[in-house]
Amino acid sequence: MPSEGRCWETLQALRSSDKGRLCYHRDWLLRGEDVLEECRSVPKLSSYSGWVVDHVLPHMQENQLSSETSESSRSTSDLEQPSCVPKSPVGTPAFSPVSSATPDGAEDKHESQHAEPMALQSSRGIKVEGCIRMYELVHRMRGREGLRQWQEEQERKVRALSEMASEQLKRFDERKELKHHKEFQDLREVMEKSSREALGHQEKLKAEHRHRAKILNLKLREAEQQRLKQVEQERLRKEEGQVRLRGLYGLQEEVLHLNQQLDASEQHKDVLKVDLSAFRTRGNQLCGLVSGIIRATSENGFPTAEDQAVAERALQEMRDLLTSLQQEIARACEDKRRQDLEAQVKRRDSHMQQGPEVHRETPAPSQGPGGKQNEDLQVKVQDSTMRWYHQLQDVSSQCVLAFEELTNSKDSQAKKVKMDLQKAATIPVSQISTIAGSKLKEIFDKIHNLLSGKPVQSGGRSVSVTLNPQGLDFVQYKLAEKFVKQGEEEVASHHEAAFPIAVVASGIWELHPRVGDLILAHLHRKCPYSVPFYPPFKEGMALEDYQRTLGYQVKDSKVEQQDNFLKRMSGMIRLYAAIIQLRWPYGGRQQIHPHGLNHGWRWLAQILNMEPLSDVTATLLFDFLEVCGNALMKQYQVQFWKMILLIKEDYFPRIEAITSSGQMGSFIRLKQFLEKCLQRKEIPVPKGFLTSSFWRS
User: Which of 286, 434, 470, 580 could be cross-linked to 406 through a Cys-Cys bond (beta carbons 3.0 to 4.6 Å apart)?
Assistant: First the structure.
């Protein structure tokens, strides 16, 4: 054992020396030239060292244990025996430092060269080699232990650093949270400060608002008082205006009554042989003056004191005129009586001179020089036209009486039937348009089926005139009324709408003549100028009723404006002018038009034989000729152009004479239209006229 300790010390000393750090090979003499090559290579253990660690060291440890219990001599003898040293299964290549990359042939040669020296080594060499191997193993174990300790130390340091970093992170989070809390506190303080400032500002604004509200309330009270004062003034003004207006109506009524007395004095013209036309002309002028004042008043609001004064002067002049007329008639009567008395005396004297048997015939009075009399235009319509007008109104009245029971019925079922029938009759007429001919035919068929007693769909229900015995009369009346109302409203606003409405009305008129008579009755009632007819003022008639007979709409004692009145009249005349020239294209062509162009010619001739009305006559003539002029031109040709020349040469001066400067628009429009037609020698086709292509759509 002491020798073994010395060996370890020797090995330790050699390892610590400079030469101990060199690579030694015990077999360098056998290898020859390979020694220098190995010196240049990196020092490394041979593969045999692993075998020594696995086989020799365990035996050496056993020997050490046995040496402690046995004698050292036995240990020495054991070591000297080569049989105790295990042989390496690898053989001599374990002593070779040559790398595994050496070819197989070289390895075999190397083994053959070292096999014999390995077998000849002594037990001491083997022991030294084992000690070297053991020392290397111990050194490695120490290295591993040191490495393990170093790793543990590093792990402890890492854990310490990690804990330190964690603590620092916690401190950082705490500082950050503290900073956020401080910022939040600062922000809250700022917000509270802003809130306090805002509340103070709000209180200030509230105080200002209350102050301004007080001022505004004072102003509002003042404004309300001013408004009430103005309302009261306006009420007083309206009351005064109403009083003046009623006074004007009374003045107009009295003027018209006095004018009728002037007209009644016309019977003395032939008897007394005096010319009373000047009185009559002046009376008409005064009536026109008063009517003009009332018409202007209706457009502008209420009459002024000046208007009332002018009307009163006109009334006074009318009274003076009537007084003068009566005085003139009285003088004429006195002169005639005196002349008759003188003539009677002369005849008596002559009879006394010639004897009672002598009889002479008095010659007939002769006409004035030239034999031509100046005849004025008529004011009244022809008797035949008036009879026709009254017949149509009688038809309308009889129709109303026929369904009076249905109208006044309190039964809910009857009311429902009446409402359904009215919708079925009026809604299709409202849907008439120029969208397509097929659509127009559907509407016509629906109306025709309803009048024929067939059920039609209206409002999701089946409706038929057979639901009530008076249903047909009711539907015919409402249908005719709706056609005229469409002319009054739709055609008045859109002139092109006259033609689709007129063609449907004409087709229904042809198949159901009573509907046509009711259409004319409604048209004549709402627009008497379509007859043509100027309704006279009857004694005892209220002025509002008289204005209604003229076609004006009167609501709350206020007459509609002249422009609106002319617009409605224009729409109805346009509808009438379209009806007389259009026929339903799907009807029988062998039948004649139920109310054709001959009635248009009659209307035009009669309107020209009557005294023109300011603004009205020019407007209606223009509308009628623009819609129906082309058809009349094709029908009557030369006679039509003669009529146009008559209008231009004779009728225009009459219209111009009664038209004021503010109402010349309609007259100028008519004049320019006829002059352009005369230049072109053609009346243009009216805009919106239904062509053949429309019926194919």
Answer: 470
